[in-house]
Amino acid sequence: MQISTPNSSREVLLEREIAREFPDTKGRYGLFGGAYVPETLVPALDRLSAGIARWLHDVDFIAELNDQLATWVGRPTPLTYAPSLSRLWGAEVYLKREDLAHTGAHKINNAIGQVLLAKRLGAKRIVAETGAGQHGVASAAACSRLGLPCTVYMGAIDCERQAPNVGRMKLLGATVVPVTGGDQTLRAAIDEALRDWVADPTDTYYLLGSAVGPHPYPYLARELQSVIGRETRAQVIKQTGGLPDAVFACVGGGSNSIGMFYPFIADTDVKLIGVEAGGRGNALGDHSATLSLGTPGVLQGCYSMLLQDANGQIQETHSVSAGLDYPGVGPEHAFLQSVGRVTYEAVTDDDALKALSECCKAEGIIAAIETAHAFCGASRWAKTNPGSRIVICLSGRGDKDMPTLQKTLLKGML
Ligand SMILES: *Cc1c(COP(=O)(O)O)cnc(C)c1O
Questions:
Q1: pTM, two decimal places
Q2: Among 255, 262, 373, 397, residue to substitute to test ligand 1 (most atoms within 8 Å of Cβ)
Q3: 53: CA distance to ligand 1 center in Å?
């Protein structure tokens, strides 16, 4: 069920989005967003909002951020023409190479930006949560780079499933705290990180890893990840002389996708398509396709689409890719879906793995399994829109996925 918005107000809302009026002063994107949090969190969030207003668009802050992005992260990342995929799909395919960013994915853009902000706010330590471990690694790396101690909360089950990332975080100097309460995965880790932050919101900064959570986090992640879409827009115009027909990105919490889409929002001829994890089927519990199959509600401080049962209980999710395995999604995506500016669709585990394999053989790139969902969505679209120019956000590299790939694609091949 999607929220149905009358056509006239959809147009008005889209115009406001194009005019960059969202989030509004209450942290809302149309109906979605906001900050549904306990009283104890309000001062910490207010302090963060004030810090963002003071620093995020400050000339010196931007210069320092751009220097870190250029000399440490490795930006701008290339926009790579994909000749073999183009031939196979009957399209003109370009890949935005976030896999080439330091630590192997887009998450570092958000992490380095927030740690820089934390320093301006006078924080003495950083806390972060992590599910699969990728945001934990990016946070640990950014903290070492900028000289702040880092504590990463990680569900005890995830610590076991993602042991190599626990090792990476430790090598990078972070303290990893396994969370044994709750569901022992990402949701419990977020709750624990919030508890730590609230205990001392002045000296501690909470570094949230995606475009989710209470306002101002979804806004902060969008601003820091929009570097992806800004670079892409300039590169595609320079390399092809025009805008693409369609842009694809995978959607977990929604940070690489909002970063890619946002600078194209006003280009209303450019189709924007977000691809979610369809898992092993459409039954609740078998997928993580929050926008395609979810319903509106509040999760972790924010009104958005989510996966819940008829009583509002959050449901277990499934995806072959750990980074997409989350029952919520950023509120701006729920908004963009409700006004019809972005289309969201789901791709199953098996189809994503096939697309991953195709990209390896065609272009010599092992993409993350998350990213492979976007490849599959793009290949389907290309087949019904022959000759179109397509950009895909290659959100990260697949080296981290070798254990899963060994149990799936490589089974029987070794
Ligand atoms: C974490 C991750 C994602 C999903 O997170 P978003 O916030 O939706 O971008 C996608 N791709 C890769 C490679 C990731 O590591």
A1: 0.97
A2: 255
A3: 26
